[in-house]
Amino acid sequence: MCIRKVVCIGKQWMLFREFKKAGLKADVVLYSAVIDALCKNGLVESAVSLLDEMTKEGIRPNVVTYNSIIDAFGRPAITKLVVDDTGRTSQLQIESLSSDVVEEASKSLLADREGNQIIKIFGQLATEKAGQANNCVRQEMMCILAVFHKMHELEIKPNVVTFSAILNACSRCNSFEDASMLLEELRLFDNQVYGVAHGLLMGCRENVWNRAQSLFDEVKLMDSPTESAFYNALTDMLWNFGQKRGAQLVVLEGKRRQVWENVWSESCLDLHLMSSGAARAMVHAWLLNIRSIVFEGHELPKLLSILTGWGKHSKVVGDSTLRRAIEALLMGMGAPFRLAKCNLGRFISTGSVVAAWLREPNTKSACTS
Question: CA within 20 to 30 Å of 206's CA: 92, 131, 167, 357, which one?
């Protein structure tokens, strides 16, 4: 996290504390907004502390509150920060937690009628470092399952953000069986979303795609960031479990519906707003499209570009997770793109070189596999 952002979050935290000290009563909207901001900036332990404070004051968390916490712990293990009452921050590395902690915490969450045990669960998630790294994902998944059950028990109606959080968690599962277990939770919330996600994961059929179209129509009513987050989460899950054809269908549908603005032209593919799985699926679809242009006898533009950006979440300039994923994909396909000398987030090649590569016998299989 850059220094400027740390200072900004610290100031926001101090303003919130001054608000409380002045005797003004915070409501669920304000608490949820602050918790969401803390979670999005890696300040998870502080968010959990605030959730504890919120429930002790008798304010019931809503779907926004739960979504923020779920999403924070559904992400890959990263260095998170803790902010104190003075706005100062310190680093905390999230690793994994013991299975005993998970089992006990999950049971207590499901048994607790007031929902306060959720604070204990996530407090342990934010501080426990025991266990092996390869068990971390499954352990976190079990806690997330318990949270979903608590939301269902409290009759907290989920939204598209909740569904995206579930799909993101599925993408991180170590096995198809674990992902299927999480997907089953969608039955508690929305059978339509479950049917589409599970159907696409099992292999796209015509009836599944028709249901997907109906779901995408509903998602289109959301704001742009929420809509793109859902497409990214769904595509990541499909890509990570080998359903590359389904992933390509989803991103092409997103392109048709303009989910990602100005993502595609004959000369440039802009992946800035896409997740890793969605971006890789889009690269395949784009290359197949320009291949058809070549075989129709048309010339490609003189310069072709694939833009990934540096990665807005990178701590080091040029250290972009998305860029590395696309670089590995292009190398694996044998695609003749190289990093631009003056732009670390841009892959370039000449149209003539790419056209020659696309005409090679094995290129089509490389673009579809």
Answer: 167
